[in-house]
Design a protein that fits this description.
It is a single chain. The protein is an alpha/beta fold. It contains 15 helices and 22 strands. The strands form 6 sheets. A 7-stranded mixed β-sheet has the order 14-15-16-13-12-18-19, with helices on both faces. The chain binds NADP nicotinamide-adenine-dinucleotide phosphate.
Length: 492
Amino acid sequence: MDSRFDRSLLRDADLLREDLFIDGAWTPGSGGERTEVVDPATGVVIARMASAAAADVERAITTADAAAPAWGRLPAPARSRILRRWYDLIVEHADDLATILTAEQGKPFAEARGEILYGAGFVEWYAEECKRTYGDVIPTNVEGRRLLTLRQPVGVTAAITPWNFPSAMILRKAGPALAAGCPMIIKPAEETPLSATALAELAVRAGIPRGVLSVVPGPPVLVGEILTSHAAVRALSFTGSTEVGKLLMAQSARTVKKVALELGGNAPLIVFDDADLDAAVAGAMASKFRNAGQTCVCANRLLVQSGIHDAFVKRLQVAIEALTVGNGFEEGSEQGPLISEAAIEKVQRHIGDAVEGGASVLSGGRRHSLGQTFFEPTLLIGVHRDMLVANEETFGPVAAVLKFETEDEAVDVANDTPFGLAAYFFTTDLGRMWRVGENLEFGVVGVNTGLISYEGAPFGGVKESGVGREGSRHGIDEFTELKYLCVDGLAG
Ligand code: NAP
């Protein structure tokens, strides 16, 4: 267990950084603590990442606070050019960044590369959008008075991000925050800090000024407490579980911060009798098995109408059994390992509970013969709405199929969850597209597709899946304040 990251895999080995990034410089941190980063496909320790102590996080906040006025005042085209350079560097180094991502997270290299480019898209998009953070001139109500609104940077911001998209979840936040003129302090997930520090290395090369971007991996409770209690931090953007999101929301209340929370989901994917079967199977596979089922928008419940149920299940089974499971670096690998032993246990618990309740395993259902945390792509049928697998995010490669009879029943089952992030449905009936699209209580709805993410569109949840939006012109609002300027005394 003492092997290190094979730097020869990287064209630019300087992207591999195992220190904290504060005030424009790399530092081992004041506490001297380090955390092991493990390749989930092999169990090998690939890095020892510095772990921030309280003093390090406080220094990151102080330096961000010092950098905020100049960064916020920089004319938008100048900020835009710096962000554009960051985008160009990320794209130029996409292969190396994907290598680092696959090594620490496990997803297939092609998927990792896709994530890098997807995340970079947010930097590119917001590099442009920052030139358009317009205010208004409001028709006056009093002679000699003018009414204006300005959109100003909120100030220092913090991001706490998960392991399942170690690069994109950072860029989706840092892109709009920096574009808006706000410094950002990032606490990446313990399992996947190397993607974060690699992005910081490229930020330096792009010319992002010191203090504007910091990366402080460290003990989550400690770092979270400092970031949420410090008055200088004016906004928190979090992606992760609903449980931790609620905690951070409560903690942020003490200093009344702006919060944007992208939390857990329990996505339904509904296949109606009139669906295009090819599109429905392709959509279900894309939505369910990407990242081995470890995405917040993964179809967690496949609701299939009785008339198409057997044909859909048959086709889905063929597609599931054709999936290639393997180390993400192997050519053709389509499903990597799960992130941890705990993830495997959750998957097993969900399958066990479903089978006990009368569901059947048509494919998979067990640990994969590859060992480690690899798991067989699994198909469960005969699932009911009261089973664990239909109520909690499984976060693993388990397609759980529930049969339904009517449209009303499907919508009722789909909405029967405290979560409201993504939903999908497949139909060729135009009236149904509108009815179901409007009646699903979810923030993001895919119709006849299982892939919906795009930097130009707003992403976010309702109910316990979160508050706020990422992407699109709305995403930058999380990092700006609307100021009303009332100018009187202008009468001639
Ligand atoms: P998690 O346990 O909530 O962790 C997310 C982040 O929060 C990590 O950086 C973690 O640090 C940190 N954290 C944990 N406890 C904390 C605390 N008490 N105070 C401050 N920070 C704390 O979630 P996860 O298991 O990594 O990620 C999976 C979850 O994220 C799923 O529920 C998934 O649906 C959700 N997700 C949502 C979206 C979305 O856009 N809505 C996207 C991706 C994932 P450590 O890693 O160091 O523990």
